[in-house]
Amino acid sequence: MKEKCEIVKDLLPNYIENQVSNITKAYIEKHIVECEECRDIYNSFARQRK
After folding, report:
1. Contacts with 28 (C-beta within 8 Å, 6 or more apart), sequence order
2. CB pairs under 8 A, 24+ apart, for 7-12?
3. What is the pTM of this model?
4. 1-50 per-position pLDDT tens digit
5. Distance (Å, rounded) from C-alpha 11 to C-alpha 27?
6. Per DSSP, which regions of 1-50 are E strands?
7. Is the Cα dihedral 50, 48, 35, 5 positive or negative?
8. How far is CA 16 from its chain centroid?
9. What is the pLDDT, as a whole number, of residue 48?
C-alpha cells in the first residue's frame, strides 16, 4: 500500500467522526476520490458506523 494510503487509512476513523482539521478533511476527500482501495475502506468504515 502506498504511503498516502497508509496515512488516509490511519485517519479515516477520526475523519468519519469529524475529528480532523479542514486541511486533513480536504486531503482525505481528495485521496478517496482518486484511490479506489481507500474509497472501499472508507465505505466499509462508514457502513460499520451505521
Report:
1. 8, 11, 12, 15, 20
2. 8/32, 8/35, 8/38, 9/38, 9/41, 12/38, 12/41, 12/42, 12/45
3. 0.87
4. 599 999 999 999 999 999 999 999 999 999 999 999 999 999 998 888 76
5. 10
6. none
7. positive
8. 8
9. 84
Q: How many helices and strands in the chain, by DSSP H and E? A: 3, 0
Angle at 19 between CA 3 and CA 12, to 5 degrees: 35
**Set of cell numbers at residue 17:** 467522526
CA 7-34-32 angle, 5° bins: 50
Provide CB contacts within 8 A for 34, sequence distance 6+.
Answer: none
